[in-house]
Write a structure and sequence with these properties.
Elements (H helix, E strand, L loop, with lengths): L17 E3 L4 E3 L141 H5 L16 E2 L8 E7 L2 E7 L8
Antiparallel strand pairs: 1-2, 3-4, 4-5
């Protein structure tokens, strides 16, 4: 048997995967009998390498879920992190990482996480909402955060942090958001229509009402 972590043979006793023949499931532990593991030694590890030099995507792991029933929920893969203890310093359900070595470069687009929503060439009608990324904050009945305290306990939909050389190139040349492929026009997502004091507008929706965020074409001191 080959060690998935270092490629050596016969050096590790692996926990078995159980195949449930009655409903065609692969099982590693159950909700009532979970497998324990030690931090720093993940119980499931996969290491791959590819010498691909073509425009074909090299994908070491591929999962496709096809829904055939109408009006059914699901189709997604779920990562579920759970804790019932206090004192967590960092606690997340999913982490995506893209790393470049000292000689690594990208001539196109690089991201730690890619999300795509592909719609058909057809009229989708009304009644549905289609979004590339859904963020949902689910509050408990007695959930409390310190209102207005960014230095203490707080909650938000997005937390963006610059780490490493925090005062370097990204501070000088980075953008908070880059929109591509938009066409300016009245009622559009983006409208480059100068109206003092703004040069353009970005459309957002709050509950069921559209609003427009004013944009300036250059930084200016408050007057």
């Amino acid at each position: 048997m080959q060690n998935a972590r270092d490629g050596s043979k016969g050096t590790e006793v692996l926990q078995p995967l159980f195949f449930e023949a009655s409903d065609s499931r692969l099982i590693l532990g159950t909700s009532s009998s979970e497998r324990s593991y030690t931090a720093g030694t993940p119980p499931v590890s996969m290491y791959f390498t590819s010498s691909n030099t073509t425009t074909t995507n090299a994908e070491p792991f591929y999962v496709k879920s096809t829904m055939t029933g109408a009006n059914g929920y699901g189709g997604r893969c779920r990562f579920h992190a759970y804790t019932n203890t206090t004192g967590r310093t960092n606690f997340m359900a999913l982490k995506a990482m893209t790393e470049f070595g000292s000689s690594g470069r990208c001539s196109g687009l690089s991201a730690a996480l890619c999300a795509e929503l592909v719609l058909p060439n057809a009229n989708l009608g009304s009644g549905g909402a289609y979004t590339v990324l859904e963020l949902e904050y689910v509050a408990g009945g007695s959930s409390l955060v310190t209102a207005g305290s960014l230095s203490g306990n707080h909650a938000s939909f997005i937390k963006a942090t610059i780490s490493g050389d925090a005062d370097g190139d990204f501070d000088d040349n980075g953008f908070f958001l880059v929109l591509s492929g938009v066409t300016s026009g009245s009622g559009h997502l983006f409208y480059a229509n100068k109206s003092v004091p703004f040069d353009a507008y970005l459309k957002i929706g709050v509950n069921t009402t559209p609003y427009y965020i004013g944009l300036l074409a250059q930084q200016a001191a408050a007057t």
